[in-house]
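Model it.
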Amino acid sequence: QVHLEESGGGLVQPGGSLSLSCEASGNILSIPSMGWYRQAPGKQRELVATISDGGATRYADFVKGRIATSRDNADNSVRLVMNNLKFEDTAVYYCTARVVSITTKTESEYWGQGTQVTVSL
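Modeled.
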């Protein structure tokens, strides 16, 4: 089993910055991909950013230029730095990871519990 522990989030004013972190632990051989999704009230969950174990990144168009993701393969963690936050960035942000199990050598997707980001005056 794999657990994703998120930290960060909170309340920030428009134009401000915030950083989220996520660390994976458990039955892990490798993590080919980690990423972030978000879900605003009344909306579907949407992709924010992903990063491969080689460092290749992909960003949603609505965050390009404002958000950067990075990861530390040594401690199975991923970070999301968000700048110039807007009201519409308010959402629950979820960490996700595609993990290859040590025991089964198969790949599965795991999700964190989510952390709230609120952009407000």
